């Protein structure tokens, strides 16, 4: 079966900083796939290249068999992408944002309306549908970002830190939405530092460090009987405060 995402030898530098360094990754179609890695590991850079927003310096990326570069248009049709802090049009209302995205995707107006109604209801944004997005909290912005990414019912959804800023109720709703989408045949790929969510939802996980893949496999295999968080620290290396660090914190506060 054609992988949902196939990346080979992907490289990206910003000046002298090599952000992604020869990354190979295959995400099986129909999987729930987590990408984890320390801060600055290159996750966002890699995801933006998959989404067709950043051109790799070398290597190739295909989404459901369609090459993303040099012409990302077809791959973008198959993909829904939610950025860490979704760049939406702040002056549009949530409803207008959905109408505009649906038009860009070439969906019929009636379909945009009915799917938009569904998404706004499920994501608990119905009452805020007429408010400008600029007035939204980060959690609300993430939810409307997800609605925009799902409106065209893409084959692959890729989400950068989707659960940050969501309260527990909305985390549960988002998890249920993603599981439903996955049961219908979609592939979900998301990056997260919240490893218990990765452990709960994903069948497979990739760990990226220093711009390269350092581990990939079934979650249970990688965790090896410990928590995924412990396995992650074993793989990427932990860091502890030395005895003398911040010693002033041990004295009584003024
Ligand atoms: N536009 C840019 N210009 C310069 N350097 C960049 C740019 N984007 C990313 N980098 C650098 O590339 C490296 C990887 O950054 P990236 O944001 O991809 O990491 P990340 O794994 O998503 O990190 P985090 O978990 O902290 O969000 C970092 O050293 C970062 O400073």
From TrEMBL:
Keywords: ATP-binding, Nucleotide-binding, Transport. The keyword ATP-binding applies. Gene3D superfamilies: P-loop containing nucleotide triphosphate hydrolases. The keyword ATP-binding applies. Residues 5-235 form the ABC transporter domain. SUPFAM superfamilies: P-loop containing nucleoside triphosphate hydrolases. One of its GO terms (molecular function) is ATP hydrolysis activity. This is ABC transporter ATP-binding protein. It comes from Microbacterium radiodurans.
